[in-house]
Amino acid sequence: MYREALDLLETYGEYEPEDEAREALLQIFNRGGFTQGYGPGVVDQELMSPQKPNHAGAAVGELAAPGKIRLTRDVAAADALAFRDGSGEEYPVRGAAGRAGETVCVKTPSGARPGTTLWRLTSDEQMKAARESMNGERRRASACARLCARVDQAASLDVTDGAHTVRVVGGVVERATGKPADPARIRAQLEKTGSVPYDLLDVSLSVDADAFLPASMLNELRRDAFARLGRARVEAARGCEETPRPLDAPGEPDPDRPAATRLRVQAPDVARLRAALENGADEAVFAPEDFTREALDAAAAQAGFPFALALPDTLDGDSLDMLNAWAWENKGAVTACLASNAAHLGMKWPGALQLDAGLNLASKRALAAGMAWGAALYTPSVELNAGEIRQMGAGGRRELIVYGRMRLMSLRHCPIRAQLGGRHSGCARCDGVAEDRRLNAHRLVDRTGAAFPLRRQKSGAGCIVKVMNSVPMLLLRHAGRLPAAAAWRLVLTDEDAQRAADIVRLHRMALDGEDFKDSAAWRRIEGEPSTTGHYFRGVE
Question: What b/e string do you get for 488-514 counting C-beta neighbours within 10 Å, with b at 16 or more?
Fold first, then answer.
């Protein structure tokens, strides 16, 4: 559909989709219809459908009377059909088939009532066409192979795609007692690459005339060689190994370990940062959530201590320019700026530069590219496990986030505004209601009952809503397994004063080599739900 739209637009200068095109797109996948996204301006209530989180299908008829369906679209017997009531409950329908305008008789599900819409969840004809459209689209790489087979020696097969070469070794070649080796048969066997995305352009043989090479041996060599070539191509494309290495043993000496690990605390308000410094933090990281000039100036006036500035990974251009100007006006207090978006690297900021987790640094190549900007410190992607972080190196310039309620996603629409209706821009609801009715007092609750706190990021261009994890990450129990780091960062968001103080003091004790598990602070938090993030499991 999009290919056709682009071609018509280029040819005629305009394009208006036909009803058939829209119907086809609705049928393949939609969640309550389509929106125009953020293009014309956000209207929260129109951005997402509250009725259904998965495929809604397309309307093809309705229940005219018990046992009778009036079809508005052609329906095939193999289509997946269902009635859906006002609550979203679906009642599958089987055996309905006919042309648009016809009334067909079927067994009516008990929950369906006359007037209930019949939805086609899957069109058998459309899915067959989709599968057929992919035939021939599978990209195949060209490769060459060389087989070496000497009697009483292990057979080997080299395969190359021009950039990567691999060798596999098979069993020992026996001497033939009957027919000698047939080069044509050997080539034909090795060229059977239909199940793998390679075309063999050339097969060279270095084979003894009396070598016995059964088809099973040749097949095994071919399969192993192309599997290894595939892994080599993937590793080269990713810039890292396909699977993570195991963790080092706990407490194993690390030559890249800095002399001392500093404790940094991040918070969205200066009052909590001041308390963190009083409870043992070495440095404060100010991560504002209100990007209006008034709020930033008030924070600078209240601080009275140096701090690093965590730049938000999503912010409109005008607010980012204002934040940059504010940082320079307060350069005497700003010791460093944490860049979390490539746009930040294109701007000059006061203090030292740090590459934050938002840049998603996940390989040595990415780290080298980032450090080329002159960064003094970096935070690896929070999706890496401890072994993968350790492989990246630069432990003396690495910071690890070891505590905090991690953000799961950012929303440009507001769930509260979606309920109330109206436009996103210019909404000042949270500024005009009591604190317990503001966005930060709300949670999103999933089907299991887990509650995900919401955090408001305010700017002149409207809010961004951050959805936080239902439980905080806490790694104190596993501190001995963590990679070397110049700093640990604690990310505070919605903790009360007592919990925030406990968290800072416990990490201070851990870094100082004290037995934090024997403290009252640990007894207050050890039983609370928490997660270790990806540190010990990696991305799945």
Answer: bbbbbbebeeebbbbbbbbbbbbbeee
